[in-house]
Design goal:
359 residues; alpha+beta; BirA Bifunctional Protein, domain 2; Rossmann fold; 2 domains; 9-stranded mixed beta sheet; 5-stranded mixed beta sheet; 11 helices; 33% helix; elongated; Gly-tRNA_synthase/POLG2; Anticodon-binding domain-containing protein; Anticodon-bd
């Protein structure tokens, strides 16, 4: 059975996503509750890397006009604002993480697995750097490395990511791709281009003048470096990358191993089968601890079936959801405050003392 055929039933059962097919084409990916959290975390990490932590000023925008063939048309107003904020001085950048785009040709590759990576409708994640002309080539090389590092940082198998050789088209535009290696072959997950001033070629001279910016006292057209991926590609990459069948006792267990920053939930609770009274007390304790974790900003799943299913069954559900840690409560936890913390990576438990005096 192929990797995708193993993953898709799990994704549907545990509310990650399912492909919606219209006219024999994957129109879009429909996300469940878990998938929405995963996508939210991916977008947040993309924004942190491309906007928040950048040295230069990066401004967010959204292309509401879906039919723009040239992105520069949708950047006119944001560009004027950026020039004002930056005193007309380069460099500065733009990031788009909310535009819903539609592929004009959605036939794509004949390989079935690749169709989920490129649905007809997708949320693009695109970055535009408006560079000082003399520094654009150096930034192009730098940005390739940074984007590859970003994918590898969140991967359970960093070695699967690689950069292609730089290709140059007839107009002198340089392009490279970041690819991920899967069992069906290499998947292009991000494209990086050194556009230079080609982006402005379709504009009238008066419109081009609007994009003139300063380097000191000199006015120039900025050189543009752009990178583009999509939320759907990123979601599929990390689902396929995180899927693993690991040895467990004398059997194997299926898990999604997400980076802790991408995991939809960071922690949940489990407890062994107990009588109704003790089970209810532990459920109340899990709610109390869970609410405190949520108030501290930790995404927490408070499971209603705690102490009502076997521990192994609760662990299995947690592993399918890719939850890095499980707080294991037991009968003595109510007396001594000691609980076990189980890791998805090692399946080992360490004892911790939980402070719940008010409980």
């Amino acid at each position: 059975m192929s990797l995708l055929n193993r993953i898709l039933p799990m994704c549907k059962a545990y509310a990650y996503m399912e492909p919606i097919i219209i006219n024999n084409t994957i129109d879009h990916l429909k996300y469940g509750a878990t998938g929405e959290l995963l996508c939210q975390n991916i977008r947040n990490e993309w924004l942190y890397s491309n906007v928040t932590s950048r040295d230069e000023s990066v401004f967010q925008f959204c292309n509401a006009q879906e039919k723009y063939n040239n992105d520069i048309l949708s950047l006119k107003d944001p560009f004027m604002n950026a020039k004002q904020f930056c005193n007309n001085q380069l460099p500065f950048s733009f990031a788009d993480s909310r535009s819903i785009c539609e592929q004009s040709d959605s036939k794509g590759s004949g390989i079935e697995e690749r169709k989920c990576f490129s649905p007809k409708k997708f949320s693009r994640l695109k970055y535009f750097a408006f560079c000082i002309p003399e520094e654009s080539q150096q930034f192009f090389y730098h940005w390739q490395r940074q984007r590859k590092i970003w994918w590898r940082k969140f991967s359970a198998n960093p070695g699967r990511f690689s950069l292609t050789e730089i290709s140059t088209d007839d107009n002198g535009q340089e392009t490279t791709e970041i690819r991920a290696e899967f069992e069906w072959g290499q998947e292009t997950i991000e494209t990086i281009r050194n556009v230079n001033t080609k982006m402005f070629d379709s504009l009238e001279p008066a419109e081009q003048e609007m994009f003139l910016s300063k380097i000191g006292k000199r006015k120039v057209l900025p050189h543009v470096v752009e990178s583009e991926t999509s939320l759907e590609k990123a979601c599929m990459v990390f689902l396929c990358d995180g899927y693993a069948e690991l040895p467990y006792h004398n059997d194997r267990r299926t898990v999604f191993r997400f980076h802790r920053k991408l995991a939809p939930y960071k922690i949940t609770f489990a407890a062994p089968l107990l009588n109704a009274k003790k089970a209810d007390e532990l459920r109340q304790l899990s709610i109390y601890l869970g609410l405190n974790l949520k108030k501290s900003g930790v995404s927490t799943l408070i499971a209603p079936n705690i102490a009502k299913k076997s521990l192994e069954s609760q662990f299995t559900d947690s592993d399918y959801l890719g939850i890095p840690y499980i707080a294991v409560l037991n009968e003595s936890t109510l007396e001594d405050g000691i609980l076990g913390l189980r890791s998805i990576e090692t399946t080992l438990e360490v004892g911790l003392i939980a402070y719940f005096e008010t409980f």
